[in-house]
Amino acid sequence: MGKFKGRSLYLFMTLSLVLMLTFSNMNLSFANANNNRVQVWVTTVDEQKLLEQQADVFFETDTTFNPINIQVDENIKYQEMDGFGAAVSGSAAYLINQLDSAKQYELLNDLFGKDGVNFSFVRHTIGASDFSLSSYTYDDMSQGQTDLNLDQFSIFQEQVNVIPVLQDIKGINPQVKILGTPWSAPAWMKNNEQLNGGTLNPEYYQVYAEYLAKYVQSYENEGLPIYAITVQNEPHHETSGYPSMYMSAQEQIHFIKNNLGPTFEAQNLETKILSWDHNWNEYEYPIQVLDDPVAKDYVDGSAFHCYGGTPDKQSEVYNAHPDKGIWFTECSGGEWDTDFDVNMKWNMSNVVIGSIRNWSKSVLLWNLALDENFGPMNGGCTDCRGVVTIDSNSGEVTKNVEYYVLGHVSKFVEPGAVRIESNYDERIETVAFKNPDGSKVLLAHNNSDNEQTFKVKAGSKGFEYTLPVGAVATFVWEGSYDVSKINAFDKIEAEDFNAMRGIETETNGNVVNVGWTDHEDFIMFENVDFGNGAISVDTRVASASAGGILELRIGSLTGTLISEVNVNNTGGWQSYELVNGDLSTAIGINDLYVIFKGGNGIANIDWIQFQPFTQQNLINDSGFETGDLFNWNEWHPDNQQLAHSIDNDDPLNGNYKLVHWSPADYQQLTSQILNVPNGTYKASVWVKSGGGQNELHLFAKGYGGEELQAVIGSEPVGTWTQYLIEDIQVINGEIEIGIWSNSPGNNWAVFDDVELIQEYR
Q1: Domain CBM6: where (predicted)?
Q2: What is the reported pLDDT for 510?
Q3: Rounded to an integer, what distance in angstroms lies between the CA atom of residue 134 and that of residue 132?
Q4: Structural domain range at position 525
Q5: CATH number at residue 702
Q6: Residues 693, 743 contacting (CB under 8 angstroms)
Q7: Model pTM?
């Protein structure tokens, strides 16, 4: 029976038998000769180690407990990565081009080569910026003159430094993507007729769209395809000090949907269009752009800078429009803070790990290179720091803290990699990836004020590593693994824990329970699979004391709190009762911690079982069992008879089905418009058809994206067949689900069991 212990015992242990059973069913394999080998690179903030390879560590059977537990799960996938790098500004290109050929080759290979830090993404200024040798665009005219046909358009000013450097970069790393960003339209297109400040004159919106298209085409002709452009650099920053241009959200919407998007489409340009390109704190701007359905069709996503706000605002935009991408495109260090420690920690937490965990597909810093005087400058920042510093006299190259910030991820994560799950702990921040070749990369940063030892787990194997304060480590390993899982929806016997603190097990008849539970004791279960989501938890408990609380967390002892189950006195240590707790959404595979909160002698616990989400069909009268169409909307042409009805002849289920038929040619729509929470949905309908229709399909529209269809077609469907639309991303709180027929007379189709179900992921 459970008793008051009257002591503070902290005992860490695992059950060998449980582990043997667990691992006997696990298939873990790696591709290399030593299938447990993990390579490690480390940077310490005292600069004694700078992206320095360490001795390998090895995955081993996991038999120890560590309170900081980093679980990497390649089966949970997030965004695909485009790459990492910095801006080849006019100043950076000039400095690189001034180096002798040997030094230039050495530098570019170090920055973009496989043996270096392997940068794979660069930003390019469309015309001049605040870091150019002079102010210019590709179509500058004398005061009072215009060039509506863009006859004077030329990129000649960039053929001296910028284009040769970009071509050399592409020669070293053909995977490098180029993002183009304008600081200003030509002065004659602007309301103030100056490059510095002002706004784009609406009279020239279309000409400017064609100007940007010519930029894309001109660079393509130089062997430099432009992967994406942002519409305007920092559209809320207008200054008289260097080329810049204000653009409100409404102006950007108008320009994209009426000019830039249609122009790129008409000219068959595949270059992506990105909105915003400014700070995190004004995240409402890109949401406003994407809320316009016409503009949204042309926009691939939103870009962000680091100079205001926090990276979690990227997730605000993603959650509003999960069908669009997020890119991080600018951040600069400078002489305002020269502390390596502070810069490494802030950049790792916010720019790299923070932005990527908030859906960014890229990490781009500002100038790739500047000189010892933080230039050449063209107005603006007078003490910004490049990723590297090139001495303008000697040509000596100094690698700055930003080089190591980027290098810890760019060297190892290839374009096309996907972010995979790694649980969050505020002491050891992480982000993980799976490369196209199957290798895994884990970036870990000690963001605490103390040295930390933590465990990294792949499946049910793991290794421990210790990082000093502020240090960064990149771990790389090969191969894939299968995880031995516990089904959350089966009874989980309490005594089958993988790790614990303070408790003891005991047997009473046929019942084996966990007892001797005091405040802050816990039991932990590895790899509990919550599938598409659990909604509640049942626990069989007994207590002869005042009881307490069972605190359920996932990931770690301080991980996400998913439930608190209250336990009261049940009348005895073997007087078991079933208690229930609500659950915040738990999805996928997680380590589960049951933590006891209260005094001494809280409760005995027999088993735990979670209850899954029930997939509720949101369609009203989905099987037409009311015998009428009261819950359904319809449309047909004014000069045509109604062509839908309900009958009871051979339905799929129940007593009724929907019929589309008319003796004359007909068009008929039957649908429901529903208010639903934003999220991912699937829609379906069961169909039989005599065939011969011009159009026959299930559709989903009005949800914030393009209309989706499950085409049934004109061929006969002789038996009841289900047609399905998956991955419907509702972003505006409503959706229309319906059936459309366009048919010659006397052709029929019948329908039953229409469904709309939210998918929990």
Answers
A1: 490-611
A2: 81
A3: 5
A4: 485-612
A5: 2.60.120.260
A6: yes
A7: 0.70
